[in-house]
Amino acid sequence: MKRAAGSLVTAFVLMMGLYGHDGSVLASEKDSKELEDVSDSEKIQWARATKVSVIEAIKVATAHTAGQVIEAALHSINGRLLYEIEVVTNDGKVVEVYVDPQTGKLIQLGDKK
To answer: Which domains occur in the chain, in start order?
Structure first.
């Protein structure tokens, strides 16, 4: 069963590698859009601007926060596209790590849940 769950995460992560970036500054998540909430034309715009794959973003996130990745998705937060990588840390906390899909740089750590 564990192997099947890992395959689902891998498939989701690979699918997410198709989408990308536009730009601006992260302040809070009050003006946030998730990938499933945008039109196909907006997804195409994001894809054309992406320079960093979701696989690369996950590597950045897990280099900073060790643990098991449970979700990787592209979000628009205050007009800026960011990969949000959720990691279950080795001490059992869920951490959101943000990576810029344009530069591959770590942006900020989310609150531990």
So the answer is: 2-109 (3.10.450.40)
**pLDDT given at position 113:** 52
Helix, strand, coil abundance in the chain, percent, nearest 5: 35, 30, 35
Angle between helices 54-64 and 2-16 (to 10 degrees): 120
Strand order in the sheet with 67-77: 32-34, 67-77, 80-89, 94-99, 106-109
- Which stretches of the chain score pLDDT less than 70? 1-31, 35-36, 108-113
CA distances (Å), origin 61, targets 31, 36, 45, 77, 94: 23, 22, 24, 18, 13
Q: Are 72 and 8 in contact (CB under 8 A)?
A: no
